[in-house]
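Exercise 7. Given the components listed, write out the predicted structure of the assembled complex. Treat all entries as one system.
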Amino acid sequence: MTNTIAVQMSGVVKRFPGVVANDGVEFELRRGEVHALLGENGAGKSTLSNILTGLYRPDEGTIELNGAPVSFSSPRDALNAGIGMVHQHFRLVETFSVAENVVLGNPDTAFLLDTAAINERVKELAARYDMAVDPEARIWQLSVGEQQRVEILKVLYRGAQVLILDEPTAVLTPIEADALFRTLRAMTAEGRTVIFISHKLDEVMAVSDRITVLRGGRTVGTVDTSTTNKRDLASMMVGRNVEFTRVQRKTPAQANDVVLHVENLGAHDDRGRDALHGITLTVGRGEIVGIAGVAGNGQRELAEVIAGMRHTTTGSVSVEGKILQSGKARAAIAGGVAHVPEDRLHTGLAAGHSVEDNLALKSYRSSLLSRFGLLRRQAMRDGATELVERYDVKTPSTQTAVRLLSGGNVQKVLLAREFSTGPKVLIAASPTRGLDVGAIESVRERLVEAADGGLGVLLISEDLDEIMSLADRIAVMYEGRIVAVIPADKADRETIGLLMGGSQLEATS
Amino acid sequence: MKSPVRLERRLEQPKWLNWAIPVISLLGALAVGAIVLLLTGKNPIDVYQRIFERGFLSTRALTGTLRTATPFAFTGLCAAAAFRLGVINIGGEGQLYMGAIGASYVGLVMGNSYPVGIVIIAMVFAGMIFGGMYAGFVGLLRAQFNTNEIITSLMMNYIAGIVLNYLIFNSLSYWRDPRSAGFPSGKPLDKRAFWPSYEIGGVGISFGLILAAFVAAAVWVLYKRSRFGFEIGVIADSPRAARYIGIRTKTTIVAVTALSGALAGIGGASQVGDFTHYLDAKGLQLNSFGYTGIVVAALARLNPLGAIVVAILLGGLTNAGYSLQGPDFPSGLVGTLQGLILFTAVAGEILMKYRVKRNTAAKKATVAS
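Answer.
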């Protein structure tokens, strides 16, 4: 039977400073199967695949390949052993042809390229696995789906027996995804093995033979796809309903007194594809509305559109009934939108600048802080000193560069500044991610305090516990749409987990 | 293979480094230069002493030094102004030519019919507008199409040189002196378009250098104390943060690049108004004022006030080079030293951000496998 096991990973532990990314993971891969690795962001999927491909070394645990223990010290080692990875973000040379990219980095390639022979081999390989791609085309001429085929060809050309695909459908259209699934079938029919990393329940059910679910760095279990269903998977993914305490509010939310109104909002992502489709949403005075969803489903674009950093393609954003000009951050700031972006240090702050400068980042144009185009440094200093004290920012001085502060204090600087502008609405994107427990607690307290003070808060977070304990209402986002809005006291993790994975409520109950 | 030293990022950058590092860079360049001199069979101490004497130690030497320093100051400010935003404008050379073309035109047109003060002011502004617009085009390309400004600004230096040649040598333009028999030359300006010069203790100081000092102070205020400067700092530090607070990044890039070119343009105006008093197509192109400006800005660590000091320093070096040129003092030496200074100044930036630490044996354990 050992012959049927391609890869066996046991007791794999990988620690990073402050986190245990893999905490005793068990993973068994049978030859010729499509094995899905399912889990939320941060569950440890990427770490596990990086260990298997030799990018990281495990701190503990063993890896066996075809029954023999192995230890990879580089991706090249893993590739030579027949394990290849298709990354979510392509690593292709844009100006090279398909065939050139395929042979790039291959140690067997001769010094002088025999272009015709290589083209022929690539063409043959592509045809065998039902992948339409012209070996002579330049990468920049190809669609995203075709570029992904080149990535797959790269590892096949190197003779990989085990292919790891990291969220391969994230960039694909449904038709391209179907073609990919056919290719995967053709590969497993030949005895190759595929690890398919995803958090989309539907496609996992459609494409895989077996599924291993990870949560919080541990293996929850491995199941046969034929004997499971989406509801079970969702609860494995997000955890059984655990007891959590809802935060007590001093002032109840007034959902009917709308401060933020988003109407039929559409927007493009950075590549110009539609990222938001007709989002309609309201946040009331003193209300915390949580946006749940797996990262990359339009949350960032939604936050940026409301904050004026991104243009709308349809619809509008209004604060207290006044429509904000699209794509004008200054208009949004003036209209009372505060924004704590996901990327705190480089978007929310200018990391190389001092605490003082950063605290003035949104108000330096006010008559208080500048006159006749010249800054009033003394006023900036006084304001900074006061905010540092009030928000208990631990910093050597107001002149210290923000990049030198700890994560918790960075977030305090950001929150202090955002609250100091007298906002009506706060967009908080993953406001506690990467912080330590104490800092998380203090950030959450600040959010609740602000809501008690009448601020409307849109809390975007991947941490379901955070949303369930803080939010009054929960909106679930999937592929640029709000698929459901549920009052927090009626929400359960399973349902939200299913919705986050793209399942419709009716289909699963 | 492990190097015996490693670089460790500095948490704080102490203020004293701001002047210590340029000094160390300069000494480093002189030290490497000494090796070059030794290899060519010269006594470095002797050569450096002569450079110092001919650059700084007599009123005549100082007059020449300050004269050479004047264009360096402007092109140094030009480079510093753009580099601070992260726009690597190396087109100071061409922008200076354009400034000279603009200022000489205005000087020729207005010189014999307007009061001296008005003519000078008009020439300064003409230099700024010509240099500024020439650079503004580079900024526009960068802002709109994300073209690499290093390449566009460099190429436009050549274009500016060709325009100069055309105006004086290849056409009967307004700038060319129709009376020049034989070798073509620029039309001389009227006396009223001559910029004044002052004498302090026997040392001649041009109006242009004094202007440069005032301009440097203004640029300093703009960058360190103004709202606009604050925005430039944010863009340079984090373009995403700039977008987050709604700074008009593209407009700022165009404005700063144009400002940078305007500064070089005044340098061109000063060449015409202060010194040559006609459009000297050949002379302007011989001196590489624009490229030296990059060295000035680098050694001054992009500080506008520092640029004036460094310009005088490099002015002395260059001026000494002019007067010492001969069989025992190769003309390439000054250029070599300038290149070395640029090299060490850029290397000095690493010392600004990192400190050098010795690798200890304990560290080696982590790489054992």
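Discussion: Chain B touches chain A at residues 11-12, 221, 225-228, 230, 233-234, 237-238, 240-246, 369 (CB under 8 Å). Residues 70-303 of chain B form one domain.
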